[in-house]
Amino acid sequence: MSMTYMDPRVFLILEMVLEEDTNTLEQFSNVLGVSTRTIRNYINQINRELKGGIAKIVKNEKGTYSIRIEDESKLIEIVNFNRGKLSNFINLNSPDERINYVLDILTMTNNPITIDDLAEEICIGRTTLIKDLKKADRILAEYDLELKRKPNIGMILVGEEMDIRLLILDRLYENYIDVLENVNQINLVKDYDIEYLRDELKKLFKKEELYITEQVLRDVERYIIMSVLRNLNGYKFEKIDKRFEVIRCSDEYTLGLKLKALLEKIFNIVLNEKETIFLTMPLIGRKAPSTKLALSSIKINDSVKEVVDEVTSFLLETSGIDFKEDKKLIENLEYHLYFALNRMRFNIRVKNPLLQEIKERYTFPYSVAKIAAMIIEEKFDLKICDHEIGYIALHFGSYFEKNSRKVLNVNRVAVVCGTGLGTAQLIRIKIGKILGESVEVNTFSDIEAKANLDLLKYYDLVFTTVDFKTDLDVPIFRVNALFNEESIKKEIENAILLKNSINLKSIKKIEKNIPFIGKLIEEDKFFILNKSTFMENLEDMLEKLVHKGIIDIEFKKKVLKREKKSSTALDNYIALPHSVNTNGENLYLAFGILEKPVIWDTKEIRIIILMIIPDKNVDSTDLIIKSYEEVLEVGRDKKMVEELAKVKSFDEFYKIITKRR
């Protein structure tokens, strides 16, 4: 028996009369939000669908409606069929869900479809659908696809088969089950075929010594099922863009040939040679393996090594951080890009489930990854999406995590206690939790410490429950027995960074209880700027610093050249230009408050924070990283930035930025 879908609103009436026989026209009207006249039309439509001895909705003497069932099995079949369809509409109030549903329909037909027909299918208004289609046009453009419209005929999806498949795989279907169910072809591929396919894939990969993850296996399955279904429905590769032809030269292509032979055998179909390229794509675009054994068989090509070298060289020049010293980081970046570049070349999209968390928690690594992406895009003429940038950021994040552990490399700690053994012991335990149990902790009474202050100079840190004055160059922390461990850990990191920094004289290290960034702020590097454009304000700021002898002309030129090449505008009204100051020994921050907001790279800028990075201090990496992180933390505090943007003097500025955050 042939069945057609019912409009979800029409089907809801059928569901209601099946559940109870006490509904009136008014009750139907209230539930569906339409007139009673429309309800009568819906009931007539249902009865037309159920004619031929299946069932009929009738009006009772009391004005209520019930259903007379003649063929229960056929009615159940119709109900289940429409319930399945109705599940597709559960989230169709969301524009994204509606757009995906529209794309699903368009990718599975060669026939034009009108806006009115599509609006009726999705149960939305024509105006809403037209808005959705404008968004769909932008999505399709990302895949080199186009929605061609012909008056009085309808619209049809136009583009290469490869791009249509990539759209389907990326936006519509997370796994092969989605592929089967959403295209309403669950019966074309049997469960036992899928199970057999999976077993054979595992055997094949093991035989070929290809180390894969469960995710790679799922991706290969998706590509195989997509290949089978598209071919069974007559959507075959007639031609293929030349950029995909290079896949034939890859090591994985030989395995792609074996995948093609395998699915031809299992599904009893014949595929053309171009399908091999498609089936190879999930292999060349997979994520880098995580085991040494799996990595050992991969040969990194020269172009990947070159771009990693270019990225790290540029970062050293502009940020002062020498990533090249970390050989493991370089190796991991090379392996990552070996596969990531294939994904970018062939428009294979990946979703990064950690992306938002990376942006929020790994702000600085993400910023570094964006710079790396800019260089990669320029070298290979590619576009890198946020999800890929997020994965690159994880590698830089690992580098910074290792560096932060180095900062807390403390061997000896003194505890000065004016109360008693219990307090001293509790402080010792809490110090052990922060710095590790291997740290040597010695306890002194306040009387001992004050009488022999020279004893304390042999310690890396001093914790004290009492106040005392000393000129010793040792970080001293005033605490009580119940101090906040996270807060003290941050203060320790800051203190050690400042202690190890070459520019101790220029830093307000004696000031307590202020954020780290407050220790780097000086009045001679604070400016109120009143030019009309961003570049004019930046140049004015740089010129004043040159005049004060803080930077030279070459530094000014480097910053301006870098800014013209790639904007340093951040969110929340801040720009962060930065570069290495040749022959510079000190790290400086300079602040420029714009009297009038300006637009730069489509973003509104109110504050310029200039980082002047030394190239002579080889031990300044930790300090540079910490400074970047502090500036970015200020940038995340929109309320503080708005307050800072209104200041008229250095004192106002310093008071706001050194508030405890």
Automatic annotation (TrEMBL):
CDD domains: PTS_IIB_bgl_like (cd05568). SUPFAM superfamilies: Phoshotransferase/anion transport protein, PTS system IIB component-like, PTS-regulatory domain, PRD. This is Transcription antiterminator. GO terms for molecular function: DNA-binding transcription factor activity; protein-N(PI)-phosphohistidine-sugar phosphotransferase activity. It comes from Clostridioides difficile. Residues 185-293, 299-406 form the PRD domain. GO terms for biological process: phosphoenolpyruvate-dependent sugar phosphotransferase system. InterPro entries: BglG_antiterminators, DeoR_HTH, HTH_11, Mga_HTH, PRD, PRD_sf, PTrfase/Anion_transptr, PTS_EIIA_type-2_dom. Residues 6-66 form the HTH deoR-type domain. Residues 518-660 form the PTS EIIA type-2 domain. The keyword Transcription regulation applies. Pfam families: HTH_11, Mga, PRD, PTS_EIIA_2.
